[in-house]
């Protein structure tokens, strides 16, 4: 089972027609995952067999607007998605700043092969544009976190912590590159001159750089049932809390507040006894369904927001 991710900022029209065509083709190919469409472009994460994913990429590239998309592949032992969804959204990655246009200007894209040299320069401020829970799973050496819960909080972080006169060189990165497109465009709009971004994001870096040369520390959070991938782009050691959807390290799962399918150290104190009892019963029913190789028909687990 493979997982493919890609995005492109490009002006799109007739979104409903594109949505229907894409959904129909993905269903024919037995693909699962999510495609987000907006007037500003496309953002997708899909899973399936190699041939079927290749068929979809070929289908998409027949449209000249998508002829140069750069899909990134990784592996999964189990199906990471349960459904196929194609959604029309106001943005393909939500920042909430209308005047930002990555189609016009972004930071300078830096390939993985030269990224190490850049982020070890003492004059460069390295920013992880992802959310705090992603940062805690793993990040680059010397990187700082904006301590955000949602990407739309990034402009506030910039306003309160960064100054074009003080921070002359900024290098940023995210999972697949899409958040950096908007983040770097925003910084350029705010007057920051030397702005760099990791081309293809963390996933491209891990795919290109050997573990011996890598400056990546930890695992990389991904928005599917793998939770996180290691330096070989294989499923890592993190699991998800079925109570709050927070990624959990092996150390987190040793906590007395961790109960599989119910709670973890990040949500235990916010849950009532009634909620914990309800989650425990939901978990018990799901385990019975799995043992019987049946699909659990009860309430679905809370979903993490879809955001690269």
TrEMBL record:
Transmembrane segments: none annotated. PROSITE patterns: RHODANESE_3. Pfam families: Rhodanese, UPF0176_N. Keywords: Oxidoreductase, Transferase, tRNA processing. The keyword Transferase applies. Residues 120-214 form the Rhodanese domain. CDD domains: RHOD_YceA (cd01518). GO terms for molecular function: oxidoreductase activity, acting on paired donors, with incorporation or reduction of molecular oxygen; transferase activity. It comes from the Bacteria. InterPro entries: Rhodanese-like_dom, Rhodanese-like_dom_sf, TrhO, TRHO_N. One of its GO terms (biological process) is tRNA modification. It catalyses: uridine(34) in tRNA + AH2 + O2 = 5-hydroxyuridine(34) in tRNA + A + H2O. Its EC number is 1.14.-.-. The keyword Transmembrane helix does not apply. Belongs to the TrhO family. Catalyzes oxygen-dependent 5-hydroxyuridine (ho5U) modification at position 34 in tRNAs. PANTHER family: RHODANESE-LIKE DOMAIN-CONTAINING PROTEIN 7-RELATED (PTHR43268:SF3), THIOSULFATE SULFURTRANSFERASE/RHODANESE-LIKE DOMAIN-CONTAINING PROTEIN 2 (PTHR43268). This is tRNA uridine(34) hydroxylase. It comes from Euhalothece natronophila Z-M001. The gene is trhO.
